[in-house]
Amino acid sequence: MDYFRLLPEGCISEILSFTSPKDAASSSAISLGFKSAAESDVVWEKFLPSDYQHIISSSNSFLVSPSKKELYFSLCDSPILTDGGKVSFSLDKKTGKKCFMVAARELVISWGDTPHYWGWSSHPDSRFSEVANLRFVCWLDMRGKIETGILSKRTKYAVYLVFKLANGFYGLETANAFVRFVGRESNNEAEERASVVSLSRREGPSEKRSKRRVDGWMEIEMGNFFNDAGEDGDVEARLMEIRRLFAKGGLIVQGMEFRPE
User: Fold this and answer.
1) Would you put residue 119 in left (φ > 0), alpha (ψ -120 to 50) or beta?
2) What is the pTM of this model?
3) Which pLDDT tens digit goes with each residue over 185-222?
4) Domains, the chain, ordered by start
């Protein structure tokens, strides 16, 4: 006998809202009594960020989601652009935590406005209107920043450079990367603990390996941090290769993504 069918649907929905998106999505297979409750807006409203309506209202994306569950998975699978197209927003499917990618145009890139060194163009695979194309530099340095108050609280985040390598790229074997709270740690202090990353995947034993994403881009982890109450001001991620002043070229940058680990 399916005893769960004896419970009021609202009671089951309330119980499921205290679980996780993964648990709720799979619970309908447990019992017929769970199926309807697991689809209810009561459950999936709890899994959406408390400020999701404000975030959606700042986007030009047209979302058609009859239910909160459909909205949840739409935001997981199809990032939306906010802040005038400068930032993309999505949800981590397993946890419902907030993910943000800062567009290349919003990064501070040394010589980024000098056409001889960097070019800007559209890219068919990019979620943003422009990507940065490294033509030639010896001094590679870029920074991305986000306000901790908009991130999910009590969450460990990692920051990733999202990029591609053009045919014939060169000089991108290794770079240094770090993440810091701007108000807590100076650049010099953070540089001392920077990790070595390899954009070209020709890494040594102590270097971080770049990985291919499901969207076809590459990513390399630059560092991580714990966002407690969202009251730590700005957090900044920096990638640089300014010691070995060899020629570098062929890097295509979509942005930097701040994503829950």
Assistant:
1) beta
2) 0.89
3) 999 999 999 999 988 865 555 567 889 999 999 999 99
4) 3-78 (1.20.1280), 98-260 (2.60.120.260)
